[in-house]
Each structure stands twice: as C-alpha cells, then as structure tokens.
Amino acid sequence: MATHMAEPAAGGTEATTEHLTLEDRVWLLRAMLLMRGLEERAMTLYRQGKVPGSFYDGYGQEAVSAGAAFAMAPEDRLCILHRDLAAHIIRGVTPERILAQYMGRAAGITAGRDGNVHFGDRNLGCVGMVSMLPDMMLIATGMAMAFKLRGEPRCALTWFGDGSTSRGDFHEAMNWAGVQKLPVVFVLENNQYAYSTPLDKQFAVDPVERAAAYGFAGVTVDGNDAEAMFEATREARERAVGGGGPTLIEAVTMRMHGHAAHDDMKYVPKEQVEEWRKRDPVDRQEKRLSDLGFDVEALRAEVRASIDAAAETALSGPMPDPADVVEGVFCRGEAEPLGDGVARWSGFASKAVA
Amino acid sequence: MATLTYLQAISAALRDELRADERVLLMGEDIGVFGGAFKVTDGFIDEFGPDRVMDTPLAESGIIGTAIGAAVVGMRPVCEMQFADFISCGFDQLVNVAGKMHYRQGLAVPITVRLPSGGGFSGGPFHSQNPEAWFMHSPGIKVVAPSTAEDAKGLLHAAVRDPNPVCFMEHKHLYRRIKGEVPEGVFETPMKARVARRGEDLVVIAYGAMVHTALEATEDIDGASIEVLDLRSLVPLDSDAILDSVARCSKVVIVDEANQMCAAGAQVAALIAEKGFEDLDGPVVRVATPDVPIPFSPPLEQAVLPSVERVKEACRDLLAY
Questions:
Q1: Prediction pTM value
Q2: What percent of chain A clears pLDDT 70, i.e. is strictly above it?
Q3: Which of B64, B70, B109 sits opposite A146 (nearest CB)?
Q4: What structural domains and CATH numbers belong to chain A?
Q5: Which distant-in-sequence residues (6+ apart) come within 8 Å of B172 by Cβ?
C-alpha cells in the first residue's frame, strides 16, 4: 500500500524508466504533440464556428493520458475521458477522424451522434465516456471482472478527475474492485479544479489515501511527466494481470485552460498557472529528447503536417445524413464485443504497430 | 409440458440459460448463498458456483455499471434488483450508459435487469413500485412485463438473448399465485402483445398482474363479449395488436397498476387517440393507481391499486355509453 510522491523532474536527459527505448520516448512525445496540436486546431475551428456545442481540451495534461495509455496492451480495455485525447491517438484513432468528430461530421467516431471528446472507438477496445464522469469507473471495473472470471491476463483502465471522487460511483467502483481484487487501473487525474471548484471544497482527505481503505495500492505520480506516468501504469498493469488487484494512480497535474471554451478561468490565481507553466509536460519531454540529440523540430514538423492534412480531410467530409437520425437506437444483429486496440510500446513488440 | 408457478418459470429460464451459454452470469444482492430474497435462484450456487451466481456488494449502480462493462467484453449478465424500487439507485448507469451506448458508438450492451415489481402485500412506498414507464421514456432500453408462467419463461429467454439492455418486469404478486403449463426447454416468446381472451364489445388493455385483474373483472359483465389484450412488451410496444383490438371492439379500458401520470397506459391511450380515433365508439377510459406513493396499511393500499371492482365498474360504464 505504498504511497509515494514522485519528485517533479526539472527536465534533463535522465530516463525515468529502463523500460522505454528511444523510439518509445519519441512516441510519447509524438502522442502529446498530436494531442496539443489537434486540440489547438479544434479550438480554432470552434472559434470559426465549425465545431458546434462547446469545446474541452487537456492542455497541460497531455502526459497523463499519453503515459498511461502507452502501457496498455492491445487486449486491454480503456474508458477514456475528456482530457485524455492522447490515449485515443495511441490506441490508433486517426487525426482526421478526431477532427471530424469535433465538427459533428459523418466521418467522426460517433458520426455526429455525440460531440467533442464523447467517443470511444469500439474497434480499438475503447468505451466512450458519458458526462456523468465517474460512471466509467464502474464500466472499467465490470470489464476487469469479466477478465478475472474468464482467467484472462488482461486489464481495464479508466481516467477520472478530482471532482469524480465525490460521487457515489467512485466509492462503488473502488469498493467492488477491492472486494473482488480485479485487474483494473484507476487513474485519478488531479488537475486542481472540477470546473471552478478547488480541491479544498472537494475532499477532506487526499483521495489517494483512500486506496488503502479499499484494500489496494495507491500511488501519487507527477502527472506532467509522461515517462513517470508510463512507469506507474506499467507497474499497475503488471500487478493487475498478475492477480495483485487494482491500483489507484493519482496523477498530479494542472488544468491550464478553462473547463471549456467559454470559461475564462478567473477563479484560478495567475501565479498558480505561471508556476505550472514551468512544468509543461511537452517541454519536458522535448528537452529530454533534444538533450539526447534527437531532432525534435523534425518531429514537430511531421506532426504539424499530419494535422494540416487531417483538417483538410475532415473539413471536406460530409455532415451526417438526418435521414438516419432515428436508426441505431437498438442493436438489431449480434452483439459484438469491443475489439483490440493498437499498442505502441516496444514491450509489446510482437503486437506493436510502428 | 410442466406445470410451473410464475416464479418457477423464471428460475427455469435462468437455469436453462446458465446451462446453455457460459457467457451468462447472474449478479445481485443475496442471490447466491441465500438464493435471493424471493428464492428465485435457490440452490443455483451449488450447480453453477459463486462466480456465475454472484453475490455482489450492496450497490445497485455498481451492479448495473459492472454488468455493462462485462457485457461489452463478451458476457451476458443478468442483474437482479432485489426490488424494482432500487433501480432508482442504478438509474444513471442504465439510462445514460447502457441505453445510449449503441446509438452513440455502435456498441451493443446485452444485459438483462430483472425488476421484481408491484404491490398488493403491504410492501409500502419502497417495495411496491412499478417503475416501467421510467425506462419506456429512455431510448435504447427494452421493457417486457409477462403475466403468465409461460410468458415469464419465454420472455426471459428472449431478454437474455437480446443484444440490448432489457428490463424484465416480474410481478412479485404473481410469483406463487399464478401457475401454468410451460413448454420444456428453451423457447423465446416474441416481444409482442397476446390476446388473453377474445371479445368484440370492449377491450381491456393491460400487462403484468393487471391482466389477471382484467380477466377476473370481465368474466361476466351482463353477458358482454369482452376482450383482454395482454401487452407483454412495453418497448417495443405492439401498436398493430392494440389498434387491431380497438378496431374490432371500439371501446377501450386501459389498466395500469403504475401511477397514472405518464404510465404505459397513457402511451397506449395516446396511440389510440392518434391512430384509432375513427374506430372508437366511446371515450378511452383509464384505470390506474392515483399519483401517490404506495401506502403501507392494507386498507390504504387496496384503496389505490386498481381492483377487480374498479375495472368492472369502468367496463360497465363504458359498455353503457
């Protein structure tokens, strides 16, 4: 039941885990750059009136989803939340489908039936979130329950925020997973605010402390370090598939933008934002790699080009056809379970896709 | 054919499904070692073990939520709410996660939620409700409500084998009161209405326990020929069968044990007003529980639940219209 706080790294070339090759570390950066770039592009499209509804991003939190998803095997299953775009990217969702999704177009993952980050590609082993955020903790717990019942060495993972820890489903999932000792990884994305509500109005005890009370491990990780996130999740997955039960990972990070596009974040002290800006997860990973002589600028150019191409493709795609709007409420064929996702980590080399 | 009670028919369907399909898993509070509050799963744990007849923590949102998770990775969970009333604690998972999943992302959620519902034995405000209309109003959830032993078995097979979330409304007051011939083995009852008794002067439309109330009330009303239509399924609602009965009988009484406001019968009345108006020979009459919580004390409870007398009186008045 060890609880430890990873020291925020100042940058530098040190490898935080021996399990990552240079190529792996580059992939972590690529996923974060894609997330940041796609979200910036989507925000522009939102301001141009091309993204309906509202827009949510995970600026400054890219390492949490990139690092955790990177440790997941193809046969693992994920419930991905709204500040975790890098997880979709790692699992294999293409940039043009993501932008089409934001714009409510036919080529989006939900084909316009749900908005923005409310999606999960069922063919890649992902369940789309609902707005009642901790609901997904129970879905992940149920998937893990099935894996355990069938004796399969797989795990389920979900993200959720500090606000979610106040809801009953947080308790029901943590308790259930503890009682049945399930192979599930809970990633608490502590980004300091639930909409405008700060931590001291959310809980009296740091939620990572509660893991012990449910009978399993809780660890606190620097959520702005993709490699530390990967390593904590890799360990949690190993524990899960080895029969050691769940893990609660508290990823400490900061929501650098408002809750959604309309939110000017007046309630956050400027100094707090400035302090966290120095710990930007993308900068940190870039510095690590450039110190090793890797050409970061070339990677940035590659990512920019792929986002430009994706935007062009997405913008030229059609809107969904309202003629079908009442179709698909019920499944009329066979129930098909979730398919496998893509794994990028070299540790899954036999299954990895370059 | 074997003669089974309504409860035995439900048990038999569950047993057959557990034997036929290793993906089927029962989940609920006190269903394993204890065999369930109503003993529907009595002895199951000995044959199928504690993994497949799972005693869960006392957490209805947890039961529905984990069942959804298990279903999307290939299981066929059948959840028991100890009493239908407790589904309010799992409402969010059922309505927001399960019900919307296929429409949003093409992912099927094959779960069955068994809801022991209904009043008539002093269960009081929290052990007597008929919450089916809550789910009729929520897209993506099927709702079935058998009235006979045969349909209880056949509809439960159909629910478990359906690729969608299905609420299976099993009326507690029918558990041991109703018996009937049930075919051997697995059979699926279609989610369509059934004419319980054919007639031509008036039709009483009902489902669940109220089918029996309707049959008893209309056995002999001055020799009139009275049809009883058993809806059996509320989602999908068998519009063709309803309109067919209306066309033949021209007078309609709709009975709900649920509270009157926006009950299943209100939807049936709306359908008839919209599509069966030309066939009517009198106003559509509704008999339902008034909009009060179900009271505990026997004279109070009997005063609100639709009785044989109230249905008989409604039919007599309408026949004379």
A1: 0.96
A2: 94
A3: B70
A4: 53-85+112-292 (3.40.50.970)
A5: B38, B83, B116, B117, B118, B120, B121, B123
